Amino acid sequence: IESQSLDVDTVSVTADPQEPAPALAIEPHFLLSNRLVWYPQNPVSDYATGTVRVTVPPGYRAIASGAPVPASKVVSLRDLLTQPGGTSFTFRADQPLRYLAVAIARLVRTDERIVKVAAARPGTDIESVVVAVETHPRLQSRGRQIALQSQNILTYFASLLGEAPFTAMTIGLVEAETPGGHSRGYFALLNDPQPK
């Protein structure tokens, strides 16, 4: 049998103008929270102070229950013995909490401001709250808007209650398919639905 010559077909692909442009992939985030049935449970459900420490891969950041503690104030034997390869974040809850949570994502610190609290009740010792906003990189503009809204909300409710509950509050704004969020003491994670 004689060899045959190869047929070459060329296919051209053009975009359909009526077809919507493909959406960008949603940036992932990871949330660990207690008091859900699939997580280990403490038999005593009570309020307590605590410290959360988490090490995340390069490029990731963490927000958690508690005020952030600078790395210079936290040195442990574990730090000296472990290999580098991530960033450690430590959060200390000086005000008693019932539930703890940690959120990990590729976050950018979009805004940080100190909000003065008019303590109307005697014996309140929190005079200001550090409000920080951490967002996925594509949500930085929205994060700056949320910083001002958070400041106004905190100021309003502190004026009603006569105090603020915590010395620090972090708002995490993450991309998601659906609206919603998660809130524990010291931080709130807000889902920002992405257009389809």
- Strand order in space, largest sheet: 7-8-9-11-10
Q: Beta fraction of the residues?
A: 35-45%
Provide a count of the helices.
2
Structural class: mainly beta
Radius of gyration: 23 Å
The level of helicity is 10-25%
The termini sit apart by 55 Å
Q: Mean of the pLDDT scores?
A: 83
Main sheet summary: 5 strands, mixed
Number of DSSP-assigned strands: 11
Shape: elongated
What is the ordering of alpha helices and beta strands? EEEEHEEEEHEEE
Write a structural description.
This protein has 196 residues and is mostly beta strands. Helix content is 14%, strand content 38%. A hairpin with a 2-residue loop joins strand 10 (180-184) and strand 11 (187-193). The protein contains two helices and eleven strands, in the order ββββαββββαβββ. The N and C termini lie far apart (55 Å). The strands form three sheets. It has a five-stranded mixed sheet with strand order 7-8-9-11-10, with helices on one face. A three-stranded antiparallel sheet has the order 1-6-3, with no helix packed on it. The protein has helices at 77-81, 140-161, and strands at residues 29-33, 48-56, 61-64, 67-69, 87-97, 101-105, 108-116, 128-135, 168-176, 180-184, 187-193.
